Fold this protein.
Amino acid sequence: MHRKTIAALSRLLAAREVSAVELARGFLERIERLDGTVNSFITVDAERTLAQARAADERIALGRALPLTGIPIAHKDLFCAKGWLTTCGSKILGNFVSPYDAHVIEQFDRAGAVLLGKTNMDEFAMGSSTENSHFGPTKNPWDFKAVPGGSSGGSAAAVAAGLAPGATGTDTGGSIRQPASFTGTCGIRPTYGRVSRYGMVAFASSLDQGGAIARSAEDLALILEVMAGFDARDSTCMDRPKDDYVGALAAPKPLRIGLPREYFSKDLADDVAKPILAAVEELKKLGCETVEVSLPNQKLSVPVYYVLAPAEASSNLSRYDGVRYGHRAEAYSDLMDMYRKTRAEGFGSEVKRRIFIGTYVLSHGYYDSYYLQAQRIRRLIARDFSEAFKRCDVIVGPTAPSVAFDLGAKRDDPVQMYLDDLYTIPINLAGLPGMSVPCGFGKQGRPVGMQIVGNYFDEARMLSIAHLFQKATDWHARMPPAFV
Amino acid sequence: MLSLEKVRAIADLARIEVGEAEALTLQRELNGILAMIDEMLAVDTKGVEPMAHPQDARQRLREDVVTERDEHVPYQSVAPQVEDDLYLVPRVIE
């Protein structure tokens, strides 16, 4: 069962060939047996999961099942789920049991999906390796010496290892796409405003977007049907009907693919370039045309991001003061001392670095030269994409400049870790949707992901071209040998 | 370049206690990050409107009616210290 896609499991559930309880037990057993090494989950609660599975079976018996009814789904540990520990990978929320559900969690509940557990992540989604978790690093199921990417590394590793058929994630600068690339899984970050952020712990509010990781584009379409849609409780959520993501897969049309000159430069490792260029050839065989496009300002994306994201983070994270929830320091002399000690103890070093950078760029006398300047360049970066999309339907390139790196390799060099996100960050700045789909293997047999970027609200088209590719290839169906 | 004094001032604004050795490490790390950011300072952006929201959406307005229920009991159940429905903090005014 653990090798099957959500689409296949959904058919088996509908045909009563397997029950939701059997599925839940199967995945819980695998987590129990195999996650000790991977560390992809922070919280598992078999009793709660099985109660939901029993409810799903009743619903199926009544003939009221939807496609995800009875499907176990893992959630990144920053989606608040009522009664579940929701830590955000941080000590400061280490004891936080959420008193309410995020919109996304409510949507999965309505669909009858079964909450399988909460997955590991870089603290407050800040990181590209899941090494910055208070609950220890997650390992890459393809190679335990390698990172799974981040920040949704727990979700990606769980799906790659067959510990969950699908999982949610969030993507502020690449946090769904890059771990999907590093673990040979499929990930989608929808258009900014497509999925409600209500109950999703905030990092950088103008960039954060919820999405998912699964084993195929078809599965991502099934999940997005559930996650997407308007919710008035998120003021940035767009009031606009969602498309028929699953329907769009039925008759995928060949598209005009834009290949950004800047994405195929010397920054891209040979072992990554090769499978991506081969995938582009495959898409051509399937009837797609290619055209070269240019994104001249994309080189400024990383500096711009490291002004905007920390600035917004320093503001969002000011709420962790040890008063209303979360960790509070044991000993302090007065209120100010309580804040200072609570936050010093509760946040890890990467989160502190970003809060300090954010505090600095927003401080008196620097706002115009940093924050406003970054927002102006952000518009230039978005304009590059608008120009490119006049000439193509989707943009294709690498997700990351290399395959998964070794654990510890970049821990002492934050700037190098930041620069590695050069292909994913521009999409967040522009607010566009992006995917990563597996397309081969590079050095040391580690997976390579191809990035597909769509125009605003063009998720259906992105999913359909990924599906077209996956009907002709089997990269997405490969599993790490230790978990077959 | 941030001085050690400036690093301490930032930590103070951010309400995060920083030790002596930590301040030195932070000074090096933050200056490394700012050096990377500096690349964007010189870009000519005259006449370009700052972009705050990808769709340039405006804040939605809603009817001025009560939409929240009183849920202080579950919400305060996760607080570090509560007494008589109030969050407790160290005394501020003597």
About this structure: Chain B has a mean pLDDT of 93. The radius of gyration of chain B is 22 Å.
